[in-house]
């Protein structure tokens, strides 16, 4: 096993691992990219993607953490007997959007805290799905491409395969449509139900 510190051993462990019986983050790092765009939505899967991207980026590299705001998620079907033209509907959309913005700041702070011990430059960007876009994954990919990312990184939730099959998934869309390399980070074993 080759480590970023250049040490290699026949049994797959570095000399530091053999001596101390443990691995440090530096010994685990495999530098692959200089610029990685990471999808961050506040889920554990997205935080795992942030950590994995940081492990695989050069010390002088850059991470662009992208949170996609999709106004379509704020629109709920109107209950029977109501109309979409009610003033309350617009107010509710504004309140939901403000709440989303507050949550995005919390998500940004947590993602940045995961990267405090690294030397990589971190940028945060919130992008909004607009008219003519095909959804959050498309907006994420477009933003990463414009930023000239070497790779895009996303976490994979452990959701239902039936729901994923019917509606698709963010990671699957990226795999099928991206011209950039895609790294999908699987959920940790502890996050998967038995």
UniProtKB/TrEMBL annotation:
Segments of skewed composition (Polar residues): 1-15
Record region (Disordered): 1-20
InterPro entries in the record: Rossmann-like_a/b/a_fold, Universal_stress_UspA, UspA
Positions of the UspA domain: 35-186
Similarity comment text for this entry: Belongs to the universal stress protein A family.
Protein's UniProt name: UspA domain-containing protein
Species this protein is from: Sulfobacillus benefaciens
């Amino acid at each position: 096993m080759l480590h970023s510190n250049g040490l290699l051993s026949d049994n797959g462990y570095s000399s530091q691992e053999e001596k101390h019986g443990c691995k440090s983050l530096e010994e685990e790092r495999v530098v692959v990219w200089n610029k990685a765009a990471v999808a961050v939505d506040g889920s554990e899967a997205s935080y795992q993607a942030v950590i994995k991207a940081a492990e695989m980026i050069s010390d002088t590299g850059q991470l662009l953490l992208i949170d996609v705001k999709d106004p379509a998620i704020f629109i709920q079907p109107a209950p029977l007997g109501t109309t979409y033209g009610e003033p309350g509907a617009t107010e509710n959309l504004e309140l939901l959007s403000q709440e989303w913005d507050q949550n995005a700041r919390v998500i940004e702070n947590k993602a940045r805290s995961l990267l405090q011990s690294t030397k990589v430059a971190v940028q945060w960007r919130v992008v909004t799905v607009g008219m003519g876009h095909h959804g959050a994954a498309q907006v994420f990919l477009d933003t990463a491409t414009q930023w000239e990312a070497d790779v895009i990184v996303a976490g994979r939730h452990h959701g239902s395969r039936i729901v994923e099959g019917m509606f698709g998934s963010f990671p699957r869309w990226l795999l099928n449509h991206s011209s950039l390399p895609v790294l999908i980070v699987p959920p940790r074993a502890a996050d998967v139900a038995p």
